[in-house]
Amino acid sequence: MSAAAPASRVGELERRYLSGTFAELCRIESPSGRERACGERVIAELRALGVSVEEDNAGARIGSDCGNLLARMPASPARAQASGDAHGARPSVLLCAHLDTVPLLAPVEPVLSDGVWENANDGILGADNKAAIAVLLALARHVRQVGAPLDVELLFTVAEETALAGARAFDASRLRSDFGFVFDHASPIGEVVIDSPTHFSVQAAFRGAAAHAGIRPEDGRSAILAAARALASMQLGRLDEHSTVNAGTIAGGTAMNVVPEHCTLVLEARALGDERAEEIVAEIVDRLHEAANLEDCDCDLDVSVQRTFSGYRLPASSTALGAAERALRACGHEPVRISSGGGSDANALIAQGFQTVNLANGTERNHEPGERVSANALEEMLDVALALLDQSAALAQVAAV
Predict the structure, then answer these.
(1) Is the omega angle on the peptide bond into residue 347 within 30 degrees of 0, that is, cis?
(2) Mind listing the pLDDT tens digit for each residue in 297-322?
(3) Distance of alpha carbon 236 from alpha carbon 238, whole angstroms
(4) Which pTM was predicted?
């Protein structure tokens, strides 16, 4: 933040609320598929503010114990009149966060040390995306107390960490807003994601033949060997500036003394642009088949490929992008447009035709032990969220003239 940045709109009581809510949310375990407890906490907080919450049926469809949550807060009459168009219509904006985290390796006990939140145990903190949830709840509290210049929709999705399953199952036609924002990029506040990759998952199941490993190993055909040969032949990690491949899981075999008959691999490929992503996937599939057909492997192979989400590139003329950059400048941040190798709920919403911008949230080391976020970043995120309401209303008013 620049030295000439405007004063924060976050008062002392809001700071305490934001800090306490964030710590409480982090303590609630909510790995993908088990978001119910966190969802109930969000529902209770919003209902205490007099805000109704709707839950869709995404949970049952994708194997989660909770659905996506959608809440709406109308603009305050005085501020809405000031920002409405000549016909009295009110604009609306969406803010989105996800309820789930990656799997926990240790219980979460948030501690604040030298102004930075971390997990006292050796595991993730859950700031991805509990930081954004806490900010949206603090924003809801602010709106109920002070009012908003436009209608506000709050969307809390499930299973974001499993290929955006919740947002992909959400019906974006339910939204009344023209555009929206998510806070789901672990980098300094001020960064704005303008493009994101297409993502494919590749599952490979090798089948060989079992045999006693000490008496008749020559009668067996090792599925694990075939999988290993396939992985050894691939380029994994970063392929170029905008493309990556990862072998995420491998499982096979039954016992130390049995030539393994079965082995499965799950891989992912990411790239900016559908054509490049498809090219990488084709190469992966070729390498899998070549390994299965090697003379010392000779395994059957089943491969399934799924496009889990599509990439995007925001046009420079995007209204949502303009509102985001104006809001950041109003809070003293100079916007920085970036490309991301990660996906977010923005990918899923954009794929349904809903204009969305993913903003950096100031968290660090997401998905890792040592994940952290400063108390200052939480407050700055709330300032930006409040500024988004003002700038979205201002742009909507200009468009209506």
Answers:
(1) no
(2) 999 999 999 999 999 999 999 999 99
(3) 7
(4) 0.89
